[in-house]
Design goal:
Length: 492
């Protein structure tokens, strides 16, 4: 934008004020009907004119021809054309529109709804009010906001000029509401747990650290709300869930943002097979809520969320897709496999971390159809119950679709002695330099020693799920304000 463009808009503002119109005055605009509702009202009307309608929104198109002007008004539901005619408005009111209004302004209109000679549904205006003046122009009409980074940094402009972006976030709202509705029908209650935690836990992740001045202590932004939700299970709240922001001090890429949304739910007297059924039922419903069908297409690939999911044991998946039998391998053997296959790994990683490197690199991208990868070696998971048929494994599954993991679930460990032993091992890994290992949480262990019922737990990544259900190529497309690297000359 050049300085003269802004100056020209300021001059229009002064002309409005000189005519006695302050577009920033305290006021309201009553009776505005959304554009989509105006269309429905007209289609159901007995005549070809609907009188006395009102609409309000942003001007996204404006054509002035002498004593008349056409414009398109955009609100949250779509666009409606308006027609301003000097003979109908009066000369003074029309000149205020002609000389004072610019693209991007917020206006309210009243008049009659009818079709023009070309058949376009239009509000023939009897009154036009400037409700807010835009001092900066919108992006150029035909090319919009083409710079992808600019769309993320200036999301407000993206939402104005790209209706498909707004529709994606409306779909996101339907998806999260659908989660709530499904869980409420099953007797779950929504709760809130701390974002600032004295200890982080519940996931293998690096935390963000902050400091509380009054308490004089460091606190952590939660990496998961798991341990607090389990405390509520101990307290007798037998079905709980939370849709919450989690924070992990890790990389940024197509599928990862350091601030993200998870849905976690816990059900007493259940196990991981109950959580599998919950995922199958819920995701089929959410696909229909987002797309109208359980069959979803993502980046040209289609899957059916309405069909039963494949169940595939982790070790079998690695042998089948990576051609390596890792069952029974110790840390040295797994590190050797990584080195032989050229897989990057941290020197301090334990057996669980090394297995994850092998799996995520060689197996995960091949899991296109909805699949539950089940029954992980005990070293991979500090918080899951040992498998009832094989104590070397835990009752855990992760749901995969389109070659990506979208969640994590366990038969939750409720033996406090076993839990302490596994947390001690995590503490040893943390001390040895594994920055994704979890600290030992004495308060959580004390809660468990009061008795925790057998419980099934599930976490779903909301952002990644929304990506797949709205065909978004990157996680930034489903976050209103994603984290961005600092750009030269751009305010963060």
């Amino acid at each position: 934008m050049t300085a003269p463009e802004r100056e020209a808009r300021l001059a229009r503002l002064e002309r409005l004020r000189a005519a006695g119109v302050d577009p920033f005055r305290a006021m309201r605009f009553d009776g505005a009907t959304p554009a989509a509702e105006l269309v429905r009202r007209f289609e159901g009307a007995p005549s070809d004119v609907v009188g006395g309608v009102a609409a309000a929104g942003r001007l996204v198109l404006l054509r002035v021809k002498g004593r008349a002007a056409f414009a398109h008004l955009r609100d949250r539901t779509g666009d409606i054309q308006i027609y301003c005619q000097q003979d109908r408005l009066g000369e003074a009111a029309y000149l205020r529109v002609r000389d004072g209004v610019s693209l991007g302004d917020i206006v309210g209109v009243r008049g009659d709804l009818q079709r023009t000679r070309t058949g376009e549904l239009t509000v023939f205006c009897d009154q036009v009010e400037v409700l807010s003046k835009a001092l900066l122009p919108l992006p150029e009409k035909f090319h919009g906001l083409q710079d992808v980074e600019a769309r993320y940094r200036q999301r407000y402009l993206d939402l104005i000029v790209h209706p498909e972006s707004r529709r994606r976030f409306e779909a996101r709202a339907r998806i999260t509401q659908g989660m709530r509705d499904h869980l409420h029908r099953k007797g779950f209650i929504e709760v809130e747990t701390p974002v600032l935690q004295p200890l982080y836990g519940g996931a293998a992740a690096r935390p963000f650290v902050t400091h509380h001045n009054t308490l004089g202590r460091d606190l952590y932004l939660r990496v998961s709300d798991e341990l607090y939700l389990k405390r509520l299970i101990v307290g007798g709240m037998e079905r709980v869930y939370e849709i919450a922001k989690d924070f992990r001090n890790e990389g940024i890429d197509r599928f990862h943002n350091p601030e993200f949304t998870m849905m976690e739910c816990y059900q007493a007297y259940a196990d991981y097979t109950d959580m599998m059924r919950l995922v199958e039922e819920m995701l089929s419903e959410l696909a229909v809520a987002a797309t109208g069908s359980p069959r979803v297409t993502y980046q040209g690939r289609a899957v059916d969320f309405g069909r039963p999911w494949t169940r595939l044991p982790l070790l079998e998946a690695i042998e089948r897709h990576a051609g390596v039998d890792v069952s029974g391998m110790d840390r040295g053997g797994l590190a050797g496999v990584c080195e032989r296959l050229g897989l990057d790994h941290e020197p301090a990683m334990g057996e669980g971390g090394l297995l994850d490197v092998i799996f995520s690199s060689l197996v995960e991208p091949r899991l296109e159809e909805p699949t539950f990868v089940v029954d992980y070696p005990v070293e991979t998971t500090a918080l899951a119950k040992r498998h009832r048929a094989d104590p070397r494994l835990v009752e855990r599954f992760e749901p995969f679709v389109f070659g990506r993991e979208i969640g994590n679930a366990f038969s939750e460990l409720n033996d406090p002695l076993d839990q302490r032993a596994r947390m001690e091992e995590q503490r040893r890994l943390l001390a040895a330099g594994d920055l994704e290992a979890q600290p030992l949480d004495e308060d959580f262990l004390e809660a468990m020693e009061h008795g925790m019922p057998p419980t099934g737990g599930l976490g779903l990544g909301v952002d990644r799920l929304v990506m797949f259900l709205t065909d978004a190529p990157t996680i930034r497309d489903v976050l209103l304000f994603p984290q961005m690297r600092e750009a030269p000359g751009v305010r963060p």
